[in-house]
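DATA SHEET
Item: assembly model
Revision: 1
Owner: S.N.
Input lines:
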Amino acid sequence: MRLRDVGEFGLIERIARIAGRPAGRGVVLGIGDDAAIVRPRRGEDLAVTTDALVEGVHFRFATQSARTIGARALAVNLSDLAAMGARPLGAVLALAAPAALPLRTALDLVRGLVALGRRTACPLVGGNVSRAGETSLTVTALGAVARGRALLRSSARPGDRILVTGTLGGAALALARAERGGAGIRVVPEPRLGAGRILARTRGGGACIDVSDGLLADLGHVLEASGVGAELDARRLPAPRRFAAACARARLDPWELQLMGGEDYELLFTIRPAGPTASVLARRLRVAVTEIGTVTRRGLRLRGARAPARSGWRHF
Amino acid sequence: MRLRDVGEFGLIERIARIAGRPAGRGVVLGIGDDAAIVRPRRGEDLAVTTDALVEGVHFRFATQSARTIGARALAVNLSDLAAMGARPLGAVLALAAPAALPLRTALDLVRGLVALGRRTACPLVGGNVSRAGETSLTVTALGAVARGRALLRSSARPGDRILVTGTLGGAALALARAERGGAGIRVVPEPRLGAGRILARTRGGGACIDVSDGLLADLGHVLEASGVGAELDARRLPAPRRFAAACARARLDPWELQLMGGEDYELLFTIRPAGPTASVLARRLRVAVTEIGTVTRRGLRLRGARAPARSGWRHF
């Protein structure tokens, strides 16, 4: 069965059934009206972020399952909420697809998204379906954050320490392997929602961003927004297990993957000099935390690796 | 100059310049961070709605200016907010386009959207840009509505009167003419935001929906959500000026355009029997209001016109 066999309202009905009744007090009204209604708590601001995954640009059905693609479409948005220190309230999905897309594929996209939403308390509360020449998923996620406590890109100050959660380079390595015809990419990034919320309540916290475009590109966004510079020690970048060996076998440059590879979706943040140490933060945030550099007045200095010629992912 | 010449961040920078600094106390943080931050007032719920316009499906650059397309992408979302009785807080735009799209076209899409946003107090607060095979605009709009006062599709009761703002059939007529090679469609629907907000405060108010898929289809959504039926008097449907004559000249069936044509974006709503009359409502809502039928227990009875074979717009 294909999308054209069930029509717009048949598809919406099936999506609503997969989404189910949204749990939690944050959702007043889910799928099925002109808009969804969510309810932040008193004194909370609302964070809103949107991100699109487009077939042939961000995913291929040949290398990833539809469920993984659906989960990723939500995960990249949740990562943005995490980087603001927000807790998820709900998400809407605009699904565009050719009429010939198998119904099962469309529903698996939704199933993957809804399953991750269940794990992260981010119910699918609404959306839109439309015919299109290529499949795409545009997700908008809403989150709540205590008034005035959102983690901004613009809050870094000279002297701040620069830290990162988890490891860097793993996603770029997996992508490079998949492009060479290796195993498909199955991994859905784990949005650092809990870590972001704790960071937003941490004394001595500075700026925060999620690493989606690549470490250098995303650090660049923070530096620009804050009007500061940085010194980065490439030798301290946290790598996944057996990363160097895997890069050597695949003849890939580990620095390039770690500095410029995107889609790790870790949190990159700064902490005032007197704020908690990396090991204290790791305990509080319940995730590995590594100090990788310092905020300076201007410029970007890289120690321990040659400066790469290009940085980050370009869309056009 | 084309999108590929300015790149992702060059495009975002230009969009941010067009959007400007968002006015109003509802926006805490606009374009430029991981998420935008909006702030509803105390005791307000948050309405969220998303809608996509896809090239070749919902618009063609040959028949509409880029500014009109951009305005429409926001207007259809504002119409959904109007149908909930919500006041706009802000919108995010996910713009997907081929790398060869002229930069000017992309920016005109944004200019049209931002201009309508200025008029309706709905600033562009964030978004996403992505490469794609075809151009599409996916807008998500956020609105605020007094807690528990949102206008729902499910609130119609037998005995309610059925009313509609403005006129029906005009958009379908313009579309039919354009498809025959006539004048381009320049009209951007006027979202009934003020009328929706007043309706949400009106005693004796029932259900509400905006007419986007066509009168019969959208009335059907209300009847289904409310578990009721309706009797509609086709002879009372409000038509634009000189509508019958224009239909006759173009050999188009006026009933079909009025009952099944979509995209009028008027509000279709119900009022309890003892609630205000159409003329009182027209004064309060500051827009024409016409009573066109009654809510019944079940079924849909159409008076004054033959029942059409098909109803509404199908996406797949």
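QC remark: DSSP finds nine helices and twelve strands in chain B.
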